[in-house]
Each structure stands twice: as structure tokens, then as C-alpha cells.
Design brief:
This protein has 492 residues and is mainly alpha-helical. It has helices spanning 6-13, 15-30, 34-39, 47-78, 80-99, 104-132, 138-164, 169-178, 182-190, 198-203, 207-216, 223-251, 255-258, 260-277, 281-286, 288-294, 300-327, 329-354, 360-391, 398-426, 434-449, 458-466. The relative contact order is 0.14.
Length: 492
Amino acid sequence: MSFSNGYLVVFFVALGSFTYGFNNSVIGSVLGLESFLIYFDIAGKDSKSNSITGATSGLFAGGGAIGALLSAWLVNKVGRVRSIQITCVICIISGAIQGGSVHIAMFLIDRLLSGVGVGFMVSLVPIYQSEISPAEARGRMVGSHGFLIVTGYAFAAWTGYGCYFSPSPAFQWRFELSAQVIAPAILLMGTPWLPESPRWLVEQDRQSEALQILQQLHPSEDESNIHSKAQVELNQIRTQLSIDQEMEASGGRWALITNSSYRKRLFCGCFVQFIGQSTGVLVINNYQVSLYNSLGLYNSVPLLLYAVYLSWAAGMNYVSTFIIDRVGRVPLMVIGLVGSVVAVCCEAAMVAEFSGTSNKIGNGFGVAFLFLFVTFYGGGLDATTYVYSAEVFPNHMRGLGMGMSIFTQFCSTLVYTQVAPTAFDTIGWKYYLVFIIVPFLGAILIWFTFPETKGLSLEDISCRFEGRPVASELKPHIEDADKASVCYEESV
């Protein structure tokens, strides 16, 4: 058995993305199950219950930040595929323990371990996907990461909705938590047939293996064309690696900070992850059932709306994978940010005016604006931020750069979700102002300062950050420019 098709590879490995989405979102449904709250004695609205509720998301985010940082070391040390295998084992163990938890401390500690596992996963998957995807389709292929993340969210929500009707209170939440092991178990079983990243193999001086994999990932009816295209890409990877190694040698171990080009990439990668969380997406997601309660909706209805909401989000992420390589990364992120800001403004107004009332029209608009929010977030921002973060770093820095970017994401999530229960309890709708002002300012910054990367190879993206034109931009002056491997050196 062999995965010889690039699309098959990226969608299969996106089971890791699904794992992140399911494990992240499962808490939103579980917190909506009264049986879970009663079992762990956190059904009240006192400060103790609010603190523990916040900790279920906060510890997960903290663990994710740790996992994201450690992934930067692991992915370069043992390779992309072996790193995914190790991460699957962590996720399987953590899911099993959560499902068998008998004390809130046991649950919270394992929630931290689960965060570490998905911190690895959410960093590793887009790195791997970006390194095996051709430039012309990379947006769609790496976009499957965001799509499968939200699909995981949706599956968690539908599982929670189904479990609500179980006659066994313990089964309601134990089954849903235990289901976290399914996706990583399937991925683990399939990893022996996944090809290693050809870019990592070149770094390890295993060039013959890299060439063989590149030939498998470039399907064509013309066998000679397969070999030609693969050899061109291998030469491109080797040339860019040589340039990167020279830059790294001159900058030392702190090149990601000291080198101006690398520093800009790091800022761009981290900022898009920060600004994505600054829309309030996970606050809205993790506490959505409680939000529906504040709008006068109870019992199974909030769980049903939550599941439909996330299914719609998954659909919008899928749409974004088809338009990202046409519209471009920067315009799509700006559209997503501005649309999310408008939706949150409207949602805040509905919560301020109708929260706690029986006004069905006002509460209906409150639900509608949540769906408007996820339409813009899923269609413009969600998958795009992962694509952009994964592709802006040079090959030898991609593990560290992506790890730092996802670390920023989890730190942002930790801050926003940890304080959410207390913030909603004390200042109510005013907490939404954070998710209005910050993303709006971020949209302006991205539009005017972030380089566009659509249609460029991972090696040619370096030119964007180094102020050098790529060969295709100098086509009238370069013979056979379509096969040029890196920046046109003589233009410097």
C-alpha cells in the first residue's frame, strides 16, 4: 500500500486536524450536559464553578502552548511522520483517561495532557501538508487542515447532542470524551504508509529518497514529465536550503530573531494566529451553550444549534479551500476579519438588549448573528491563517516558526477563554468590545503590510520577505523562467 496522490495524503493526515478540532470542541458540548456538571459538582454559578469551568479551557490552551513549542524540536529531530505517530499516541492516552475520569482534578490534569497532544498535532499537520503540496494547489491542500479542524468541532457537537438523549447520565459525557481516541487511532494505523516530507529528507542529505517521493507526488500520464518536474523541485529545494544554511550560519541559533527577513516572517506567522483568536471565535464556541441559555434557550435546543452552527462552519471552511488560491491569502483574511467584526457588533447589541428576556425576535437575531459571524470567520479566516503561517517560513525554520505561531494561538486562547466566564458574569456584553476593536485594527495592519504568497513555491516565498523578485516576475529577462528554482540572484 502506498499514498502516491498528494490530495489523498493531505486529507488523510488531516485526521490530525480533526483530532484537534474534536478534542478542542468537545468541552463545549460536555459543559452543556447537566450530568457532567452534577457529577463533578460544578453545576452552580458561584466563583468556584466559574473558575473550574474556565480551567477546562484554560488548561487545554496552556497544554497546547507547551505542545506547540515542543513540536518545533520534535519535527526536526525525528521527522514529520514519526512526530505525527508520537502525537497520536499522546492523544489516544489522554482521550482514554478523560473518558474514565472519576475526580475533577484527574479530568483537569488530563485536559492539560490533551492540550499538549493537540498542540503537537495542530503544528505538525500544516507543516507536513505544506511541504508535500505543489505551489499552485497549496492553499486548497493545506486549507484541508482548517476544514477538518472545524469538521472535528461539528462531530463533537453532534456527538454531544446525541448523547444528551441517553438514559444513562454517565454515558452522556463519558462516551463523548472517550470518542477523542478514534481519529488519532485511525491516523496512527495509516502512518506507516505516509511518505516523509521530501524537504526534511533533503535536510538529512537523503536526496534519492526525496526525489522518489517527489515523483510519486507529481502524478502525470507522461512518465518523463514526472521525472522532470520532480527533479526541478528537488533542485529548487537544494538551492534554497543552501541559501538558508548560509543565512543561519551568519545569524547563529537566534537567526529567527536577529535576521530581519526571518523576524518579519515570525511576526506575520504569529500575528495571524493571534488575530484569529482575537475575533473571540473560541470564546463563542466553548461557551456557546451558555450564550444560548442567556438568550432564553434551554435543554436540547442549545446543543442542536451548536451542532448546526459548527456544521455550517465546516462547510464555509470547505468553501474557502476552493477560493484561497484565487483570491489570495491577505484579501481573504481581511474579508474574514471585517465580516467577523460586523457580526460581533450586532451580536453584542442583541445580548445587551435582549439577554435574559423572552423576546423571541431579539433572541432569534442573536442566534442569526452568531451564524453570520462563523460564515465570515470560516469562509475567510479560519483555514487561511494556518495556510499562511505554514508557508511563510523557510524549510529549516518551518518547525520552529510554526511552533511559535501556534504557541501564540494557544496563549491568546488561554487569555480569552480563561477569563470569559468571569467576564460575562461581571461585565456581560461589554466583553465583546475586545473582539471588535482588536480584529479591526488587525485587518488594517494585514492589508497594508503583509506580503501575499498565493501561487508561489515555498522557496520563492522567501523572495517576498527578502525584497527580491521571483524568477516568474522577471520572465522577459530569464530563459525558461517557468523552471527557475529560486529568486533571481542577479537582481539583487
